[in-house]
Every structure is written in C-alpha cells, then in structure tokens.
C-alpha cells in the first residue's frame, strides 16, 4: 500500500512538473504583434514612419523587460498601398503567423479590405487610418487611433465660422480618404449652417488641378477653400492655388499634417490652416497641457533614432502600440476576447494624438477638440488654437 501511494505521489509530482514546464515555455513565448503597412509606394509617407515607430518602441519595450514578462515580436508586411495585398497579408498574419493582435492599415482602403477577415478571426485590430467608416458603425474587433475625417471637418468648419466664414468651396481627392472626407464635410457643413457653393474633385494621377480651382474661384460668394485629400495631390492643389493668385483663406485636412508636406508645397503653403495633433508644435503647448511631455518625448526619441523629422502618422502607430500594450497588461494575457474587452474600456490614456476614452459605443475614443488648428507662417507650423 505504501509503495502504491509513493508511486502515485511520484506520478503527481511528475505531472505537476510537466505542467509547470509547459506554463514556463508558454510564458517565454513572445507576444506577436502583426502589422501590414504602406511602407513603400504612393502612401509611403504614412507607412514608413509608422513602421519605424513600431520597430523602435518594440525594441525599447523589450529592453525594459517586455510585457507580462514576455518579449514582443513584430511581424510586418509592406502592402505598398494596395488593398488586395493588405487583405492577403492580414490573412497570413492570422492564419500562418498566428499573431495576438494587429496594428496597421496605413490607408482606409487597406484597413477596410482586411476588416472582414479580422472580424471573422475574432482578433483585436487597431487601425492607423482615418476614415469614420472604420469604427462607425462600431465593429466588435476593430479600433483606430487617428481622429476621424468627420472630426476634422467639424474642427475646420468651426474655425471657419469663428473667422466669419460660412460659404466655401470644396475640392477633394477621389481616393478612399478624400471621398470619405468629402462626404463628411458635406454632412457637417449642412448641420453647422455652412454652404458648400462649389464641390469639385481630382484623381490620384492628376498633375494639375488649376481647372478645378478656377471653377471654385469663379463661383460667386465663396469665402474660403478646403482641400480634403492625402499624398501628392494636396501639395499640387496648394501650388496651383498660389499660382492662380487666389487670396481666399485656404484649408487642408489632417491628411497632410507633416513637415514632409511643407517640403512638397514650399512657399505656396504660406497662410494655410489645418487640423493636426500637437506633435508638429510640441514646444508651443502650455506646461500644464497633459500631452506636452508625451509629445516632446516621442518627438525627441524618434528624431534621435532615425535622424529624420517626426510625423503625425508615426504617432498613430505609437498610440496604437501603447494602447495594445496597456490592454494586454490589463487583460493579464493575450486571450483575444480579454484584450478586446480591455481595449474597449481604456479611459484616460494620454497619447501623442490625444486623450483616448474608449467605450462599447466608441472604438476611436477621441473627439474633435483633440485636433489643434495650425497655420503655416514663414514656412513653419504655428499653433493657432
């Protein structure tokens, strides 16, 4: 009898030891962060700083001990701005790489191509693209870090009304971002009592928008002009606007909020306004602004690591990664549902883009006031309000 009890105790100890070894092995496995970004191609000005940001902070987090005692592993693919490629890479991240969470989608088109797969796989996804359609209506597994195009329209039109402007001309790109921005601007304008007297568009391959801008200029009653787009188009619009000698107040969307845009547009950008995060003017923030330290630190670390100017697009990736880390820590695991629920309930996270307050009804967690209005003065961004 005694020998039997000893044998049983020995077996239990062996099973327990095996269980501990298995748990230890699982704990040692890295947390896999998946990403598909437009690192090259026409939207590389978005994807390049996003990838650099993810690489930099994954390294930093690992140097500081990782998350839940586990290292982060970044698995990323370059979709070159192609929606089909984005969908294929999302599928690979889910099925082959078996990632724990996805942070990516530089463009609205890439994001929306991947959403059905991600929803089906029931995997948390934080998009870095801006269109309101990404999180409105709410999709259970989909979140995003940039403010929406609707918020941008609200912030721009509010600034216009503060200047006494109530009649405008609208020009926009026909890509996913421009089309969505146009739609949101028209809706918000109607709600705010702003008349859109001229409404024109341009294609992604257009190299001169003088004809569209001339139509706006010749429309009686127009008091200001707004361009909603991203990529090369807005810089061309800006140069054409200056070449035509148009003196009306000129606005761009947050789709061009970077120093790179100023380099493309040159002196033609003088005087234009747009909504942006405070990243472009960190030292202009008052000392009691809760974002000041976060913004200054990100800017300093990014520019020191990569020897290049920071952009608001990289900041979207920073916030995405930090939100993911916070959710995993609060969940205490990488269980998809637990992480998703933790993301959905994040409150008071002060990021570079703004202060995030998520909820089951809001998977973006920002409001229009998180945008600051900037103006180009002497070739540099200046904080207006």
Any overview of this molecule?
With 385 residues, this protein is of the alpha/beta class. It folds into two domains: 30-147 and 291-367, Response regulator (Rossmann fold, 3-Layer(aba) Sandwich), CATH 3.40.50.2300; 150-284 and 371-383, Rossmann fold (3-Layer(aba) Sandwich). The chain is 45% helix and 17% strand. It is globular. The N and C termini lie far apart (84 Å). Helix 3 packs parallel to helix 4 (108-121) and helix 11 crosses helix 12 (336-344). Strands 2-1-3-4-5 form a five-stranded parallel β-sheet, with helices on both faces. Strands 7-6-8-9 form a four-stranded parallel β-sheet. Helix 2 links the parallel strand 1 and strand 2 (72-78). Mean pLDDT is 93; it is low at 1-6 and 12-26.
What are the SSEs and their pairings?
Layout: H1 2-28, E1 31-37, H2 44-63, E2 72-78, H3 83-95, E3 101-104, H4 108-121, E4 125-127, E5 142-144, H5 149-162, E6 167-173, H6 176-192, E7 195-202, H7 210-217, E8 224-228, H8 233-243, E9 250-252, H9 259-265, E10 273-276, H10 292-306, H11 312-331, H12 336-344, E11 349-350, E12 355-356, E13 372-377, E14 380-383
Parallel strand pairs: 1-2, 1-3, 3-4, 4-5, 6-7, 6-8, 8-9
Antiparallel strand pairs: 10-13, 11-12, 13-14
Helix pairs in contact: 2-11, 3-4, 5-6, 8-9, 11-12
């Amino acid at each position: 009898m005694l020998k039997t009890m000893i044998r049983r105790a020995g077996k239990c100890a062996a099973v327990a030891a095996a269980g501990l070894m298995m748990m230890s092995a699982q704990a040692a496995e890295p947390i896999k962060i998946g990403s598909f970004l437009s690192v090259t191609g026409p939207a590389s000005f978005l994807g390049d700083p996003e990838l650099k940001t993810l690489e930099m902070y994954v390294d930093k987090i690992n140097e500081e001990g990782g998350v839940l005692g586990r290292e982060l592993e970044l698995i990323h693919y370059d979709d070159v701005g192609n929606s089909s490629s984005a969908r294929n890479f999302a599928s690979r991240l889910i099925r082959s790489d078996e990632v724990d969470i996805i942070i990516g989608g530089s463009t609205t088109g890439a994001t929306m191509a991947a959403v059905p797969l991600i929803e089906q796989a029931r995997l948390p996804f934080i998009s870095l693209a801006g269109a309101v359609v990404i999180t409105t209506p709410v999709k259970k597994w989909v979140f995003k870090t940039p403010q929406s195009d609707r918020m941008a329209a609200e912030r721009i039109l509010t600034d216009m009304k503060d200047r006494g402007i109530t009649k405008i001309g609208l020009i926009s790109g026909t890509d996913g971002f421009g089309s969505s921005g146009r739609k949101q601007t028209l809706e918000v304008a109607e709600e705010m009592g702003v008349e859109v007297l001229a409404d024109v568009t341009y294609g992604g391959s257009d190299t001169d928008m003088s004809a569209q801008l001339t139509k706006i200029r010749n429309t009686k009653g127009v008091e200001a002009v707004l361009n909603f787009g991203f990529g090369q188009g807005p810089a061309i619009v800006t140069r054409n606007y200056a070449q035509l000698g148009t003196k009306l107040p000129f606005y761009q969307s947050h789709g061009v909020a970077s120093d790179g845009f100023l380099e493309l547009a040159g002196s033609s950008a003088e005087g234009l306004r747009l909504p942006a995060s405070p990243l472009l003017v960190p030292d202009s923030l008052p000392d009691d602004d809760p974002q000041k330290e976060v913004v200054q630190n990100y800017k300093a670390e990014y520019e020191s690591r990569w020897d290049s100017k920071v952009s608001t697009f990289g900041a979207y990736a920073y916030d995405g990664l930090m939100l993911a880390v916070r959710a995993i820590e609060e969940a205490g695991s990488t269980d998809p549902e637990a992480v998703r629920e933790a993301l959905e309930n994040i409150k008071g996270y002060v990021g570079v883009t703004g202060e995030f307050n998520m909820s089951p009804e809001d998977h973006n967690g920002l409001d229009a006031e998180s945008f600051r209005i900037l103006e180009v003065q002497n070739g540099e961004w200046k904080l207006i309000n």
